Amino acid sequence: MRERDVFDLLLAAAVAIAAYVQAFGLADPIATFDEIATTLAAVDQTVYLVLGGVVGIFFVGYLVLYLPQKDASRTAR
């Protein structure tokens, strides 16, 4: 990997850790996991279906719009 990729991954990890500590503190990780699992289990199925649909729309848009442009911009071999 290039140096920039390693830096980006480390920066993303640092932000994720900071967000976790800000949201849940440095409490017992098992209790925190149980709290997260309980919260996710309590969410209605409709929310998961809507979120899955939105992710699917973005994924298809990526496949249909971005990838053909990227492929067309490559030089012929």
Protein model, in words:
The protein has 77 residues and is an all-alpha fold. Helix content is 84%, strand content 0%. It has three helices and no strands. The longest helix is centred in the last third of the chain and has 29 residues. It is flat. The chain starts with a helix and ends with a helix. The mean pLDDT is 86.
Structural class: mainly alpha
Taking pLDDT < 50 over at least 5 consecutive residues as the criterion, the unreliable ranges are none
Note the run of SSEs as H and E. Answer: HHH
Largest sheet: none
Chain-averaged pLDDT = 86
Give the helix proportion (percent range).
Answer: over 70%
Task: Kindly report how far apart the N and C termini lie.
Answer: 25 Å
Strand content: under 5%
- Please work out how many helical segments DSSP would assign: 3
The shape is flat
Total number of strands = 0
Give me the Rg, rounded. Answer: 19 Å
Oligomer: single chain
Summarize the structure.
The chain is mostly helical and 77 residues long. 84% of the residues lie in helices and 0% in strands. The chain has three helices and no strands.
